[in-house]
């Protein structure tokens, strides 16, 4: 016969946890002895370890209570489902761990090598450190949210930078960051970007449109928030491109 304190130590839980399990009907309370103390047996310790193991595996307490009353066949079937769920969670945690290690190694390590190489070449094309940092953060977000489609968007942008005329527009967009939003150069740049966009894509859907995702709008929101001139530039471009 053992005390509740010793039972807690055997099972690796707190006395408070044992009392919670009593209250929820998971662990039967033993009778009190002549001194008024509850005395537990090895059977209580075994049951408590089972409950703790299921709880640590993520099984809700209400479900554990049901499993205690289940048949042996149903109990083992439930354990197989718990094991499968736990395996999926472990796989997800390992992927999170890999992303964390890539983050610790540097932001570019979170991206495919070809994207990292592209970003490292941007300063050589004349892009500002601000633009490179912003592009890096946006690609990290896009690849984290939509890894399957992000590479297509990346290839589209990388291809556009091989065209000297389009690259100049990107550079002008970068340098417009510090302009007054009502500077005539903002209006002129918006018109030229619209003309180049229509020339490249025609009347079809533009990249990033109609994906059913809020990520493209979120990304553009990050860009717009960093500069009043960029915010007005985006508004002018959208007003012209999506005018009905």
Task: Give an account of the 3D structure.
- InterPro entries: DNA-bd_dom_put_sf (IPR009061), MerR-type_HTH_dom (IPR000551), MerR_fam (IPR047057).
- GO terms for molecular function: DNA binding.
- Keywords: DNA-binding.
- It comes from Streptosporangium lutulentum.
- It is built from twelve helices and no strands.
- It has 244 residues and is mostly helical.
- The chain folds into two domains: 95 residues, Orthogonal Bundle (Multidrug-efflux Transporter Regulator, Chain: A, Domain 2), CATH 1.10.1660; 132 residues, no CATH class.
Supply database-style keywords:
244 residues; Multidrug-efflux Transporter Regulator, Chain: A, Domain 2; 2 domains
In short:
The model has no long low-confidence stretch (mean pLDDT 85). The protein has two domains: 4-98, Multidrug-efflux Transporter Regulator, Chain: A, Domain 2 (Orthogonal Bundle), CATH 1.10.1660; 110-241, no CATH class. The protein is an all-alpha fold.
Topology of this protein?
Elements: H1 4-11, H2 15-23, H3 42-56, H4 61-68, H5 72-105, H6 113-121, H7 129-145, H8 147-160, H9 164-175, H10 184-201, H11 215-225, H12 228-241
């Amino acid at each position: 016969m053992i005390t509740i304190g010793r039972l807690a130590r055997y099972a690796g839980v707190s006395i408070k946890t044992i009392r919670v399990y009593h209250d929820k009907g998971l662990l039967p309370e033993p009778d009190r002895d002549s001194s008024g103390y509850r005395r537990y047996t090895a059977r209580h310790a075994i049951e408590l370890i089972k409950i703790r193991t299921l709880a640590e595996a993520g099984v809700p307490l209400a479900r554990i209570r049901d499993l205690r009353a289940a048949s042996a066949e149903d109990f083992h079937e439930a354990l197989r489902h718990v094991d499968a769920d736990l395996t999926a969670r472990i796989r997800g945690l390992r992927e999170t761990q890999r992303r964390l290690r890539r983050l610790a190694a540097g932001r570019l390590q979170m991206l495919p090598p070809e994207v990292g190489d592209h970003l490292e070449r941007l300063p050589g094309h004349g892009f500002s450190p601000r633009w490179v940092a912003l592009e890096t953060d946006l690609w990290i977000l896009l690849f984290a949210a939509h890894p399957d489609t992000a590479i297509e968007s990346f290839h589209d942008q990388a291809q556009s930078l091989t065209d000297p005329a389009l690259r100049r527009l990107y550079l002008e967009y970068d340098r417009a960051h510090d302009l007054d939003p009502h500077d005539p150069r903002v209006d002129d740049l918006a018109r030229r970007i619209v003309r180049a966009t229509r020339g490249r894509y025609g009347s079809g859907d533009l990249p990033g449109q109609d994906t059913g995702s809020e990520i493209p709008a979120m990304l553009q929101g990050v860009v717009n928030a960093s500069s009043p001139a960029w915010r007005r530039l985006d508004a002018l471009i959208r007003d012209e491109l999506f005018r009905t």
